[in-house]
Hints:
about 350 residues; 5-stranded mixed beta sheet; alpha+beta
Amino acid sequence: MRLRAGLVVALPLALACGSPAPSPLFYDLGRAREGAAAREAQRLAPQAFGEAEAIRAEADRAWQSGDPVLGALLAEQALAAYERAFVLARLARATEEAATAEADLANRRSELAALAAQREQAEREAAELEKKVVLARERLAPLPAGPADATREAARLVAARSLAMQARLLCSAAELVFPAAAGLEAQKKALAELDRQLAGRPRPAPIDAAGRARVGCLEVLTLARRSADRAQTTEPDALLAELSASGDLSPSRDERGVVVTLRDAFRGTKLAPGVEAKVEALGRVAAAHPGLGVQVVLHDAAEPTSTRDRVAPIVKHLVAGGALEAKIRVELAGTALPLVDPADAKNRGRNARVEIVFVGR
């Protein structure tokens, strides 16, 4: 505005004195230094804007001193300097916006990570609640079995033996997770009494006691997992994916953990060709996940059941692969958990198998 006022006053004087009219560039300078771009340049590129102001002042002095040519040249330089200041201001604004956007992106990523952690925690809590619901349902007292004919009583006896073995495997897994788990010793005593009853073909079959034993051992396993140090915990889903990636193990999951089943594992009392390498590979898995216990369960096709000596090669090669022998527990299931009827001579061979269970915390 001062420039325009100066031009308005100087123009009549110049005309009266015969001086040349100021160049239109001076009007452009006035517009350039008063716009929004100029205000932004003053804030974001003050040094460049100050240089343009200095050149404009020189142009004004040259014109006032009667040198319109130099004044016009300096006015052009001033316009170029203003444009440079405007460009620098836009660049500074873009840099500010980019920094703000990057900070916002970092905040969003941090929020996303926090939400992912919350979701993982919620999923763990949901899994725990689901286990509690299962336990609560199974803990409900069943209706009394009541009398039964000989055929049904025989079926109940088979079911009771199966439930008792499931209970034993669950309590064994609990002992691997946390040997001092609450209720473990009491459940082991109850299992010993149940085994004593089952040994004599009782009538009626202790089906209700066997069901309670299974529920009790499952509860002990749940308590053991809550009490154990979870610093070296391996998520079962992650381990299942890892083992599945090998392509030839076909792992599965049950209440104990991740199960790898080996079939046709023996030739007599020795391991079949190729089984040693598989077992040692599983030993390396155990070594890579030191928080896991390993349960080795031998199932037989038919009576008589195997002895622990037959499982010794399995343990030997697990240890050779890196598993800690102190964290390996051997269980003989015999024919208590058959896949097909042990009396079926044609198909009962399917019952013979070795389960290697990675028991998670």
